[in-house]
Amino acid sequence: MSQSLTHLIQQLPKAELHLHLEGSLEPELMFKLARRNQIQLPYADEAALHQAYQFNNLQEFLDLYYQGTSVLNTEEDFYDLTFAYMKRIHADQVIHTEVFFDPQAHLARGVSLETQLRGITHALAEARHQFNISYRLILSFLRHLSEEEALNTLEQALPYLDQIAGVGLDSSERGQPPEKFTRLFARCHALGLKVTIHAGEEGPAEYVWQALKLLNAERIDHGNRALEDAELLIYLAQQGIPLTMCPLSNQKLCVVPELDQHPILQLLEKGLCVTVNSDDPAYFGGYINDNFQALVNHLPVLPHHIYQLCRNSLIASWMDPSEKQQALNQLAHVWEELKHPST
Ligand code: HPA
Ligand SMILES: [Zn+2]
Asked: Record-annotated residues binding substrate (predicted)?
């Protein structure tokens, strides 16, 4: 059975909706870019760096994640980072991806938004051409910084809004409630940007409510702690608000004690639009299909769950309606073929 589930995971077309480009920076590429830019990393080699990837919480991870971004300096660096991710997900039957980038992390080192965006968007366009993967780009604000700084970053992004589908909010969650950014996201809405908010990863269910009610989030990234609030679960199900969940990330950052206690299946059965994503695959030990496989290895996952999770990923995406319908048809076709092979 688990062999056929693995086959199903590999074959079904899907979307990834929660991926930080900076979190797809593999140790090998990090060292390559460090050499190219003559930057000294505080690790002897790739293996030593990999050894350091043990985290007790979100902040311990973020400290390494921001340190890793120091090698990203030129347009070519952002291109290489983005293209490597797109090439990798092609192997996982990802047909659409919505990727975050953290401009403030790079602006702080003097890397312009123009440089970041040129590298990222060139790689995305090239990957669409080579691998037929569609995409949306999400500018994510850092919640440990002030609303003023985020508003300033948004002003700088105004000339490039044709390249940016939506905005997000990430980084350290504890003590950084969504309400801190009410003005920022009101402005983002007014500009026609879509909104997705990291909430309920380490922060309480109250932060999920704030993301929905004060920031008008259309999606919630993570959302694990929604489970602590029965009323919130009913609201998320009734409103069809997607949760972009990340099993291996949750395990690595101790958001769940063990994967067999991951709530995704429970939430799926309660009718929530949950999806599977990799978050920061270079740091958490796997890309999207590894996350599906981890669920299969630890939870009573059935074939129709895999299908529903893939379907949810397409439904929760920000594709145009016709693009979305086509993707759903493609998924349904592959699913039928696998259930009843015609040959
Ligand atoms: O999982 C995450 N949570 C918050 N901030 C982040 N920045 C990259 N990954 C994450
Ligand atoms: Zn994330």
From this structure: 280
Q: Which residues contact 77 (CB under 8 A, 6 or more apart)?
A: 33, 36, 37, 71, 119
pLDDT confidence of residue 343: 58
* pLDDT tens column, 193-217: 999 999 999 999 999 999 999 999 9
Alpha-carbon distances of 129 from 125, 153, 306, rounded to whole Å: 6, 30, 28
Catalytic site includes residue 231: no
Candidates 1.20.120.1630, 3.20.20.140, 3.50.50.60, 3.30.70.3270; correct CATH number of 2-339? 3.20.20.140
Reported as type and span, the H/E element at residue 78 is helix 75-90
| Per-residue pLDDT at 341 | 79
Q: Which DSSP letter does residue 161 get?
A: G
pTM (2 d.p.): 0.98
Q: Does residue 198's CB lie within 6 angstroms of at least one atom of ligand 1?
A: yes
Residues contributing to the annotated binding site for substrate: 280
Distance of CA 75 from the midpoint of ligand 2 (Å) = 23
- The pLDDT value given to residue 235: 98
Contact of 117 with 158, CB cutoff 8 Å? no
